[in-house]
Specification:
By secondary structure, the chain is mostly helical. The chain contains 7 helices and no strands.
């Protein structure tokens, strides 16, 4: 379970922002004119270095041509909802753990309202949180260091 939690955190907090940065760069380059394969590969490598730091052993300069969603007309920033949903649901889960069974009516209210109310209002009304505040989003990831510690403990020979 810890492995799955850490894989999800890595995907949503490292890979998805990397893809977002790449997509932003693709749009900026496209405004300047045509795109060359070598130019795109250089941009991808630079973005991977910036987003991943020393977390990767190698770079994937052809990443830009391996993901269909970069080429779907009319669907920009395909990855944004994944990162947002991960962080929002992490914050909801953290609140549920803090509150315990008393959170169930709030969760039911939140689920009922998601079909028609925007998330800023949901955060305010149901969670008592300001989704425009960096503190809300920082709180959504506070569990991750504990998961890393627990994973290291579980996988380190005694």
């Amino acid at each position: 379970m810890l492995d799955q939690q850490l894989q999800a955190a890595t995907a949503f907090l490292m890979d998805i922002p990397h893809r977002y940065q790449l997509e932003r760069r693709l749009y900026a380059l496209r405004r300047e004119g045509g795109l060359r394969a070598d130019q795109l590969s250089e941009e991808v490598t630079a973005i991977q270095r910036r987003c991943y730091g020393d977390a990767l052993a190698s770079w994937d300069p052809l990443f830009w041509c391996s993901k269909l969603h970069f080429y779907i007309a009319g669907m920009s920033f395909y990855n944004w909802p994944y990162a947002f949903g991960y962080l929002f649901s992490s914050a909801v889960y953290a609140e549920a753990r803090r509150t315990g069974p008393a959170f169930l009516p709030k969760l039911q209210d939140l689920l009922r309202r998601t079909g028609w109310q925007d998330t800023a209002a949901l955060g305010r009304d149901v969670l008592g949180a300001d989704l425009r505040s960096p503190a809300f989003w920082e709180g959504a990831v506070q569990s991750i260091p504990g998961w890393v510690d627990a994973f290291e403990q579980a996988t380190t020979p005694s």
